[in-house]
């Protein structure tokens, strides 16, 4: 294999050897990370009874974890760029495990809010590091590798709920959190396997220096233009130049400059609209099934099937994209099938809900695994970490807004999902053409 570095950006990814270890380690780390998020759902009743809080206050724990995980993503991209994916993943695992351990001694719901927020920060760091390191190590087989790595999320959705329930029955919620803290420490072990590519690091430093020089030239040109137009206002100019000098590097580090890329901005907007109904589907599918007379056991089966089929969707996404299909078209088609899956719930029989869950799990697995591929296509490999961070940040907004918007009208969920996903699919398909 040609080992010379490319002239621009990051060095050529090895696509072999240690890259296989990277995929396995990333999949395991994402598997363990998702396991922590499942704690909130399984331990919901125990926390509600222990702290004697309302359903809304206890349910806010789930929103806090997911929102913090998404909102920290731009910072995670900065940490990855400065310290590397290995340190970022270890830091994320340490924060998550430590917060779980300390939360086992929590005495009220407000302490849980703070501790699970810290856990959410750790989850966000781990997610960004895992997705970025796969992009660094793979070029030719990146799409397939990304699907395999992200399959750990689907496996975690299926495996952890019964494990957590078993631990809860045996040790109580406090003992469960202690054990989960120990299990989550293995994220640090997986992160230790993320070997840095030194040639890539050097090229990144060159790219960063080039970017800084471009910013300095832009600021200099801007200063010269201001001096020509507003000579009579030196104090205003000085303050303006100082503000630009301070804010420009911060905005670049957070990835705000990527929003000037209209395709990336449009994709972030699509992710917001797609994530809101998906979160609502997860929240309301169980009560919706119960409301039409389906037993709780059958309703639980509906939720489990969604996680199982999500694994296959993530694995097959790489095959579909490598098989001469555009990643954008695969993403758009998956959204269209999601709308049809939601329509099946209108039949109000148990098998229609199972079929809906199968399709929804499979095709949402495809969309979620394809997201980082589309981001890489929009912003390039050099900006993959920053792009993923910004995309996840907007997903955090959707996680907060979605359940709030549809909470008063859960029976309208299917109609809302159908309308939104059809509009999204048509929009993205038009963009692809």
UniProtKB/TrEMBL annotation:
Record membrane topology: Multi-pass membrane protein
Listed SUPFAM superfamilies: MFS general substrate transporter
InterPro entries given in the database record: MFS, MFS_dom, MFS_trans_sf, Proton-linked_MCT
GO (cellular component) term, any one: membrane
Source superkingdom: Eukaryota
Ranges where the Major facilitator superfamily (MFS) profile domain occurs: 19-433
Protein's name in the database: Monocarboxylate transporter 12-like isoform X1
Originating organism: Acanthaster planci (Crown-of-thorns starfish)
Source taxonomy: Eukaryota, Metazoa, Echinodermata, Eleutherozoa, Asterozoa
């Amino acid at each position: 294999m040609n080992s010379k570095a490319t002239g621009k950006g990051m060095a050529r990814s090895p696509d072999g050897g240690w890259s296989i270890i990277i995929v396995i380690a990333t999949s395991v780390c994402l598997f363990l990370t998702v396991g922590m998020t499942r704690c909130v759902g399984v331990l919901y009743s125990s926390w509600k009874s222990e702290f004697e809080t309302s359903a809304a206050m206890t349910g806010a724990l789930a929103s806090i974890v997911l929102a913090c995980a998404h909102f920290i993503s731009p910072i995670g991209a900065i940490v990855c760029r400065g310290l590397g994916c290995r340190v970022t993943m270890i830091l994320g695992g340490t924060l998550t495990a430590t917060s779980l351990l300390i939360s086992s001694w929590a005495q009220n719901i407000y302490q849980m809010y703070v501790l699970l927020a810290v856990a959410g920060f750790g989850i966000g760091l781990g997610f960004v590091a895992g997705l970025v390191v796969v992009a660094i190590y793979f070029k030719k087989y990146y799409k397939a590798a990304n699907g395999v790595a992200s399959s750990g999320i689907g496996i975690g959705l299926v495996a952890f709920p019964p494990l957590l329930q078993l631990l809860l029955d045996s040790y109580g919620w406090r003992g469960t959190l202690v054990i989960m803290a120990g299990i989550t420490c293995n994220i640090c072990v997986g992160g230790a396997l993320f070997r840095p590519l030194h040639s890539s690091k050097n090229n990144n430093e060159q790219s960063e220096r080039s970017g800084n020089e471009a910013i300095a030239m832009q600021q200099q040109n801007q200063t010269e233009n201001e001096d020509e137009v507003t000579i009579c206002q030196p104090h205003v100019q000085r303050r303006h130049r100082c503000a630009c000098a301070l804010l420009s590097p911060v905005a670049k580090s957070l990835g705000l400059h990527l929003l000037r890329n209209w395709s990336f901005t449009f994709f972030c907007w699509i992710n917001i609209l797609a994530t809101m109904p998906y979160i609502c589907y997860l929240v309301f599918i169980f009560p919706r099934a119960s409301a039409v007379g389906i037993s709780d056991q059958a309703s639980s089966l509906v939720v489990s099937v969604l996680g199982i089929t999500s694994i296959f969707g993530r694995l097959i996404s790489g095959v579909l994209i490598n098989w001469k299909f555009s990643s954008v078209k695969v993403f758009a088609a998956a959204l269209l099938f999601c709308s049809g899956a939601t329509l099946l719930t209108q039949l109000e029989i148990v098998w229609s809900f199972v079929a809906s869950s199968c399709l929804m799990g499979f095709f949402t697995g495809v969309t979620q695994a394809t997201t980082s591929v589309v981001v890489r296509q929009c912003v390039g490999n050099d900006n993959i970490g920053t792009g993923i961070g910004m995309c996840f940040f907007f997903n955090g907004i959707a996680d907060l807004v979605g359940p709030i918007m549809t909470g008063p009208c859960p029976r309208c969920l299917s109609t809302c999902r159908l309308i939104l996903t059809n509009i999204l699919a048509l929009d993205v398909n038009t963009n692809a053409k």
